[in-house]
Amino acid sequence: MATTALAPKLRKRLVWLAIFLASAAPALYLGWQLWLAWNFRSSDLGKDPVKGIEHATGETAIRFLALTLAVTPVRQLTGWNWLAPYRRMLGLFMFFYASAHLAVFYALDLEMNLGEVATEIVKRPYLVVGFVAWLLLVPLALTSTKGMIRRLGGKRWNRLHKATYAVAALGMLHYFWSQKKDITDPLLFSLVFVALFAWRGVRAWQRRAAAVRPLRERAA
């Protein structure tokens, strides 16, 4: 009996560990590549390692945003309810990579020169869009704990976390705007987010239709 009860817990911990390690892997790889570029002037980050890691952290944040938003549709389509607890981890890793993207830009690209910020914003207004998206992520990350969910209440917490969709829209605008030539990757990510938004819209319509149907039947 004890072994039988232990098996699901062990499986859950192993899945948690696997997802955590897979989520942390890009950070470890990018850190290693930055170390190689710094010490040996050679890495997979390209001729400009700072721009390389800046782009990589931003794109990784978008990937994790897509994964976070995909958890619910996948769970609804497949019945894999075991995925639900890992949505928070994916969301926090998304915030981590978005914060790393911002930190690399300020610390390595601008070399912490506040005077350069205004100049860069004038030259590249898409920076404001990206920063607003990051600001929206901050309260989502801070309220991701079970304690905050209880404190806010389910309805208020859900309303707040719907801002994730605004983050996705702003993030894609920032991504498109920042690309000078090749927009293949932003376009592909946009299609993914459009599909996720469409699924959410269909589910909302189905819920409303289901709620209205009994009222119509009683009226008839």
Automatic annotation (TrEMBL):
Topological category with respect to the lipid bilayer: Multi-pass membrane protein
Entry's transmembrane regions: 14-40, 90-108, 128-148, 183-199
PANTHER family from the UniProt entry: PROTEIN-METHIONINE-SULFOXIDE REDUCTASE HEME-BINDING SUBUNIT MSRQ
Main location: membrane
Purpose: Part of the MsrPQ system that repairs oxidized cell envelope proteins containing methionine sulfoxide residues (Met-O), using respiratory chain electrons. Thus protects these proteins from oxidative-stress damage caused by reactive species of oxygen and chlorine. MsrPQ is essential for the maintenance of envelope integrity under bleach stress, rescuing a wide series of structurally unrelated cell envelope proteins from methionine oxidation. MsrQ provides electrons for reduction to the reductase catalytic subunit MsrP, using the quinone pool of the respiratory chain.
InterPro entries with a match to the protein in the record: Fe3_Rdtase_TM_dom, MsrQ-like
Protein name: Protein-methionine-sulfoxide reductase heme-binding subunit MsrQ
Annotated keywords: Cell membrane, Electron transport, Flavoprotein, FMN, Heme, Iron, Membrane, Metal-binding, Transmembrane, Transmembrane helix, Transport
A GO term for molecular function: heme binding
Protein's organism: Roseisolibacter agri
A Pfam family hit: Ferric_reduct
One GO location term (cellular component): plasma membrane
Lineage top rank: taxon: Bacteria
Family under the similarity heading: Belongs to the MsrQ family.
Subcellular location as annotated: Cell membrane; Membrane
Cofactor: heme b; FMN
